[in-house]
């Protein structure tokens, strides 16, 4: 089953969570412009310090649903287990759809719900702007 690896934990293999939706944002460039009174446009200093564009952090969001409905206690135990494993932790995040790249960031449990029909959880990760491969190469 397709999922996401958070550090050494895989959403399907370890918790039997079915990936419902994922959003991997493209990091916004850090721009620096100065308005010059009396001049057309503005002065763009974006690359002045580094010689290249640098980026803001990137956000990843994952929504999961349990494969089977759990009891109230079973769901509470699972949330506790997931929270202990990843909530607040800075981890490598690997998507099954893009397994050669690792995103590095801090994971948080954004929300979780429990209805009579299903249980769901949303995990947010605030990551470095560039993803990294096993050789240390980076990419947007």
Task: Explain what the structure shows.
With 140 residues, the protein is mostly beta strands. Helix content is 14%, strand content 44%. It contains 2 helices and 11 strands. The chain has helices at residues 11-15, 72-86, and strands spanning 4-6, 9-10, 17-24, 33-35, 42-44, 58-66, 90-95, 101-114, 119-127, 131-133, 138-139. The strands form 2 sheets. Strands 1, 2, 3, 6, 7, 8, 9, 10 and 11 form a 9-stranded antiparallel β-sheet that branches. The two termini are 26 Å apart. The model has no long low-confidence stretch (mean pLDDT 95).
Largest sheet: 9 strands, antiparallel
Our count of helices gives: 2
Percent in strands = 35-45%
Overall, the morphology is elongated
**Spans with pLDDT under 50 lasting ≥5 residues?**
none
Task: State the order of secondary-structure elements, H for helix, E for strand.
Answer: EEHEEEEHEEEEE
Let me know the number of strands: 11
Structure class: mainly beta
Q: What do the pLDDT scores average to?
A: 95
**What is the alpha-carbon Rg in Å?**
19 Å
Level of helix content?
10-25%
CA distance, first residue to last residue: 26 Å
């Amino acid at each position: 089953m397709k999922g996401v690896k958070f550090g050494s934990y895989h959403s399907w293999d370890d918790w039997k969570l079915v990936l419902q939706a994922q959003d991997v944002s493209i990091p916004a460039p850090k721009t620096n412009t100065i308005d010059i009174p009396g001049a057309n446009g503005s002065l763009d200093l974006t690359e002045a310090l580094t010689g290249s564009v640098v980026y803001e952090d990137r956000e990843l969001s994952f929504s999961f649903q349990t494969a089977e409905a759990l009891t109230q206690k079973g769901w509470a135990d699972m949330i506790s287990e997931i929270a202990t494993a990843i909530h607040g932790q800075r981890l490598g995040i690997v998507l099954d759809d893009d397994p050669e790249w690792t995103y590095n960031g801090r994971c948080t449990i954004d929300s979780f719900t429990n209805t009579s029909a299903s249980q769901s959880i949303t995990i947010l990760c605030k990551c470095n702007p560039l993803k990294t491969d096993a050789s240390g190469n980076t990419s947007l």
